[in-house]
Amino acid sequence: MRTYRRFVPGGAVVAVPLALALLGPLFVGDPGPRAVSFTLGGGHWLGTDFVGRDVRDQVLLGGRTVVVTALAATALAYLVAVPVGLLGALTRARPLEDALMRPLDVLLAVPSLLLILLVASVLSPGPVGLALLVALVNVPDAARTVRAAAGEAAARPAVEALRVQGESRWRIAVGYVGRSALRTLAADAGIRLTGVLYLVSTAAFLGVGVAPDAADWAVMVDRNRTGLLVQPWAVVVPALLIVALTTGTNLLFDAALEKKRKGRRP
User: Fold this and answer.
1) Is-contact 241 217, C-beta < 8 A?
2) Whole-prediction pTM value?
3) What is the CA radius of gyration of the chain?
4) At what angle do helices 182-205 and 217-224 cross, to 10 degrees?
């Protein structure tokens, strides 16, 4: 029980925003008539937003886009970065390694948010396009992390012994090198998911990938900030949910890594 107690703080912090994001739309009824903008009371528990919609309903509807987009972007980034990083670490052909990694270095030199805004100014992406853009800007850094972690494992004598024994490249890459780099990738995934959540929220705050009046936590913070002093719940509640989601995710990954570190101690 003591082992799992370290997961309690992170689980408690992330439970509310995650539950609202996944289950919130199930508890939203038919939209009623719109009220006056930025008002409190009148049957609206959290007041109304900048166009008179019920803030409670917008909160229940606004989390799924943030969570799904962030998870999809993180998964897509690793789907590309892991094969590229493993191939870069295991290949003995320097030209092939340069061909794989140098273009990513160029992409890494461009600030992530700037690249997203530049592409969005031309293509006007939706939620799927936003997930692809966020995944794209995360691939270079993720691939370099995989390359570094896998390179250390690939340099071990055990890898050469596996080659001499005639083991397939797939088994060497996945069965040994990939497993050896798994802890590093798990740590990186926790940090990267938090960064992706912030990036998705920031992009949505700037109007990338979502409609200006969409039910989205980040959009709510942006569109309702003009009424912060009059009706603060329309800004404070979605902002706190985004912070809780990112903070809780980080705490859970920290707890998982701490458990593994203690498990390796004699």
Assistant:
1) yes
2) 0.77
3) 22
4) 40
Is residue 46 within 8 A of residue 234, CB to CB? The reply is yes
Question: d(Cα 65, Cα 70) in Å, to the nearest integer?
Answer: 8
Phi, psi of 54 (to 5 degrees): -70, 125
Token match 């160029």: residue?
A: 106
Structure token pair of residue 199: 């990036």
The predicted-structure confidence for 169-198, as pLDDT tens digits, reads as follows 777 777 778 778 877 887 788 778 878 888
Give the CA distances from residue 50 to residues 148, 188, 207, 249, 262, in Å, rounded to whole numbers and listed in that order. 48, 38, 16, 30, 50
Contact status, residue 151 vs residue 184, Cβ threshold 8 Å? no
Quote the CA–CA distance of 8 and 30 in Å, as a whole number: 36
- Tell me the pLDDT tens digit for each residue of 140-164: 999 998 888 888 877 778 777 877 7
The span from the CA of 71 to the CA of 59, in Å, is: 19
41 beta partners: 44
27, 59 contact by CB (below 8 A) = no
What is the per-residue burial (b if ≥16 Cβ within 10 Å, else e) of 208-227?
bbbeeebbbbbbbbbbbeeb
